Amino acid sequence: MKLDAAVRPGLDGARFFLVDYLPTYTGAIFVLVLIWAGAPGNAPDFSDAWRTIADLGTGEVLAIVLAVTLGTVLGHPLQLALMRVLEGDWPRSVVRVTRHAERWRRARLASRTRLPQGDTEPTEAQIQESGRAGTRLRRSFPPEGLVRPTALGNVLAAMEWEAGEPYGLDAVVAWPRLYPALGSNTRLIVDDRRNTLDGAARLAATMTVTAIVAASLLLPHGGWWTFLALVPLAIARLAYVGAVRAALAYGECVRTAFDLHRFDMLRALHQPLPQDPEAERALNRALSRSWRQGTGLTTPYDHPVTGSEEAS
Q: Which of these, 113, 241, 255, 258, could form a disulfide with 133 (CB 3.0-4.6 Å)?
């Protein structure tokens, strides 16, 4: 998720609990219960697990809490890398297969945006269905050439493509400049939606790893015990679907942030406010080009006159 790379919140309490603590503790407790129940040496007996939990001393509980917390803190900087994996940053051979499936999904959705051809006028229901499909297409997929291999990657790519496009802004390079200029209410909503997205993504990844570990612990006993590994796998699937939904909501907030606060960004950059949409797009294209290329600004500055300067 390149758009967020430069403006990610730090270890604030609510975010850290939702994104880091909760998924990590959930996975750790699931694995520990299996081990305390006797896996992998014996077939799990959950009465043994409950007795082990009841017999834990304060020092043992503290050691477990510290170990899981340490793992949580060490894993926090890996959130961006994890998001890229979920977006489809995979080996090229795998990407080709999954990207083909995503392009098929995009083409299928695009076909629903087309109204019936011929002499018959489309009905109101057909027009509305076409409009809904068009909105979903724009929110869920980038242009054909930028399709990613996963649903989550495509929603985020669509956000990066569309957020600043009506105004001539490249959202990827503009967002780190726009984010500090957001109003407090907008920033609160944006951060909340992003925390929800990151939390769901982390839970999906953690539960996938938990399912693999659980399967390795239960595989020696075969039979129905192996199906216990499907519990975290089902949670991972639900969390991933939730992450895609959260990405749609987050993308809508980012687009709104560009709608409402792009001129605040220009004021903070001491750029003259454009007089019409075409002038705005020309200015924003020049700014985006300079940010992408890492060159200095070539646009004129606008320094507001202070009260003391007016008096003199």
A: 113
